[in-house]
């Protein structure tokens, strides 16, 4: 299948190199072209019945993050038999999924919520590692003259991470998950986190514009201004978060991410795109797994 072709190319890039923590950013930069070259956006024309309901719920002030549901109920959300069949095949490896509202930020919201869920299962060194990845961003933010307040978003994000670190010390796994779900229902505060993650992605795209130029048609030699593009396409909360945003985000945070895809592509089985893999030097970082169907991201669970 297609994903194995580019995964093979990934291994060719890595070879027998010894990957250190310091080499993570360099390796990820080398692999970006391989990942984005095999984008899954070409199969965006197949609607799913339930997506309009999720979008309407979010626009009417409903929850943006929902309770888990059995994965067996996913099939009913699709119109086409090909997508129904692929959703059924997921049952061999996955058991549940969690819907998120379709408000343009579902990629960011599903990514960070899945990551936060898993912190309870890893060492507190992980929270400190994550916070450390953000240290270079303030200087870059000022140099790029991006809009908004970096410090406010950064403080809100760091406080959330530290809050998770504190609660996982005293709560069981199930109690921690309940606490996190209730906390996520405060949409005003959680939106501050999403807004900050958008800014992080924008800083990375603007800083490493040559890595992303080929995959963003607007960033051509006749219109080279990445900051202007990010002001319109990344930073606004209603701007559609897509694969490029996720690549930029994982480029900074070094959080493993794979995306399980149910679409109308000609493959018989669901594709899995590995956006970022954790090197052996960082073995205990939570791995985020998202479910993608045309135009929307949810979280999927083993």
Describe the secondary-structure layout.
Elements: H1 2-14, H2 24-37, H3 51-59, E1 65-70, H4 81-89, E2 96-100, H5 106-118, H6 125-133, H7 137-144, H8 150-170, H9 173-184, H10 187-207, H11 209-212, H12 226-233, H13 243-253, E3 257-261, E4 271-276, E5 288-293, E6 296-301
Parallel strand pairs: 3-5
Antiparallel strand pairs: 1-2, 2-6, 3-4, 5-6
Number of helices: 13
Helix content: 40-55%
Describe the main β-sheet briefly: 6 strands, mixed
The value of Rg in angstroms is: 19 Å
Count of β-strands: 6
Shape, principal axes of CA atoms: globular
Main attributes?
alpha+beta; 13 helices; 6 strands
Account of the protein in words:
This protein is of the alpha+beta class. The protein has 13 helices and six strands. It has a six-stranded mixed β-sheet with strand order 1-2-6-5-3-4. Helix 1 (2-14) packs antiparallel against helix 2. The longest helix is centred in the middle third of the chain and has 21 residues, at 150-170. Mean pLDDT is 81; it is low at 1-60.
Short description:
With 302 residues, the protein is of the alpha+beta class. The chain is built from 13 helices and 6 strands.
């Amino acid at each position: 299948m297609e994903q194995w072709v580019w995964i093979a190319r990934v291994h060719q890039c890595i070879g027998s190199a010894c990957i250190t923590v310091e080499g993570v950013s360099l390796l990820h930069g080398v692999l970006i072209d391989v990942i984005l070259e095999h984008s899954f956006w070409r199969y965006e024309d197949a609607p799913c019945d339930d997506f309009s309901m999720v979008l309407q719920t979010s626009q009417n002030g409903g929850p943006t993050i929902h309770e888990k549901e059995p994965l067996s109920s996913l099939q009913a959300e699709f119109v086409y038999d090909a997508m129904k069949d692929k959703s059924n095949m997921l049952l061999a490896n996955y058991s549940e999924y969690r819907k998120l509202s379709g408000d343009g930020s579902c990629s960011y919201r599903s990514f960070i919520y899945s990551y936060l869920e898993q912190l309870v299962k890893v060492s507190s060194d992980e929270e400190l590692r994550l916070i450390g990845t953000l240290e270079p961003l303030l200087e870059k933010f000022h140099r790029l003259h991006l809009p908004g307040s970096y410090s406010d978003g950064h403080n809100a994000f760091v406080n959330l991470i530290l809050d998770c670190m504190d609660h996982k010390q005293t709560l069981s796994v199930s109690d921690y998950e309940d606490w996190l779900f209730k906390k996520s229902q405060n949409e005003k505060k959680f939106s501050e986190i999403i807004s900050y993650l958008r800014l992080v992605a924008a800083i990375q795209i603007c800083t490493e514009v040559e890595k992303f130029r080929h995959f963003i048609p607007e960033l051509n030699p006749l219109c080279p201004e990445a900051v202007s593009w990010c002001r319109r396409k990344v930073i606004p909360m209603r701007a559609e978060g897509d694969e490029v945003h996720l690549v930029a985000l994982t480029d900074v945070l070094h959080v493993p991410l794979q995306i399980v895809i149910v679409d109308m592509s000609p493959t018989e089985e669901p594709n899995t795109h590995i956006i970022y893999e954790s090197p052996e030097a960082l073995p205990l970082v939570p791995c985020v797994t998202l479910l993608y169907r045309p135009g929307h991201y949810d979280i999927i669970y083993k």
